Structure formats: structure tokens, C-alpha cells
């Protein structure tokens, strides 16, 4: 967590995942408390959102990454920019899960806090990745893990971002 000259604290979070997993839906749901099903996936987005936590204003800067394909991994620049990483995959898309596994080698030497979100859990009839597999990946990355649906659980993202912030405070 970074402190600005004012009393406002800043937390920079990069939302990372394969195309089509719901990164933007989760980000927008966190920012607006609304669910929108379709988005323009042409470019990454940066959002700022102020939240009161324990009566302290926290400014979240969220980088919603936009890989062009499942082969397009995030740059080290993004990893170094962020205070925390929110890894997102879809339970309905095994390739999106494999994408996160590949990112592991990119960040293995980093101390940056990570949280893994398995999105689209409302589509259990299309499930390709088990809850257990997600939990194992989180254990391998030594991070937290939740299954959510952007259509219903925007507060879950809030708690994940809070987790990243708390982890930052204890590590610095």
C-alpha cells in the first residue's frame, strides 16, 4: 500500500487472466455494484475507486488487463506496478486455468500478494475446472482462493482487495 501526500492510501491491483474469463465484469461490479454481461475487450482499462475501510479512505487503482490471446502473458512491468494481483480464471474454461499456471513462472521470484478468483461458478453445468484444482493452484501460489460469479458477488472482490491491502501492510 502506498501513501499519498494526503491521508489517502492507495492500493494498485492488476486483474489478470485469459481473454473472456470475466475480469472486466468483476472489476465493473466492484466499482459500480452493477453487472453488465458484455464488454469491449479491445484494450486494458484503468479504474480508480475510493472505499472507506475502518473509517480510512483507500483509493484502489485497478488495472484490468486485456490479453489478445491465451498466449499473451502479462508483462513484468505490470507485476512491478501492482501492489497485488487478482488472478481470474473461468471454471468453464480449462485453458484459462492453464493460463494462470503459466503465469506462475513469471512471478515465482516476486513477493507480491496474489488472490485467485474462479469466476462463473453459476455455470456449474459447464464446469471444466474443479474447486479442488483451484484450491491446489492457490496452495502452490501460496495465496487465497474463492469461487464467485460476477453476476452475483461483487462484495467478494472487495474482500479480496482488502486481503491484498492487509497483506501489503504486514509485509512492509
UniProtKB/TrEMBL annotation:
Keywords: Hydrolase. It is an enzyme of class 3 (hydrolase). SUPFAM superfamilies: P-loop containing nucleoside triphosphate hydrolases. It catalyses: GTP + H2O = GDP + phosphate + H(+). InterPro entries: P-loop_NTPase (IPR027417), Ras-related_GTPase (IPR051065), Small_GTP-bd (IPR005225), Small_GTPase (IPR001806). The keyword Hydrolase applies. It holds the Pfam family Ras. PROSITE patterns: RAB, RAS. Its EC number is 3.6.5.2. SMART domains: RAB, RAS. GO terms for molecular function: G protein activity; GTP binding. It comes from the Eukaryota. Belongs to the small GTPase superfamily. Ras family. This is small monomeric GTPase. It comes from Zophobas morio.
Amino acid at each position: 500500500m502506498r501513501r499519498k501526500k494526503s491521508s489517502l492510501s492507495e492500493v494498485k491491483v492488476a486483474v489478470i487472466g485469459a481473454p473472456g474469463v470475466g475480469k472486466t465484469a468483476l472489476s465493473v461490479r466492484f466499482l459500480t455494484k452493477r453487472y453488465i454481461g458484455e464488454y469491449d475487450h479491445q484494450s486494458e482499462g484503468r479504474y480508480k475507486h475510493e472505499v472507506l475501510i475502518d473509517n480510512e479512505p483507500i483509493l484502489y487503482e485497478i488495472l484490468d488487463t486485456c490479453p489478445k490471446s491465451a498466449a499473451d502473458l502479462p508483462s513484468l512491468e505490470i507485476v512491478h506496478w501492482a501492489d497485488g494481483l487478482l488472478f481470474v480464471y473461468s471454471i468453464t474454461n480449462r485453458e484459462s486455468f492453464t493460463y494462470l499456471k503459466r503465469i506462475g513462472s513469471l512471478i515465482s521470484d516476486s513477493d507480491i500478494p496474489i488472490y485467485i478468483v474462479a469466476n462463473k461458478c453459476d455455470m456449474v453445468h459447464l464446469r471444466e475446472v474443479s474447486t479442488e484444482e483451484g484450491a491446489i493452484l492457490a496452495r502452490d501460489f501460496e495465496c487465497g482462493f474463492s469461487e464467485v460469479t460476477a453476476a452475483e458477488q461483487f462484495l467478494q472482490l472487495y474482500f479480496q482487495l482488502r486481503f491484498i491491502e492487509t497483506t501489503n501492510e504486514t509485509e512492509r
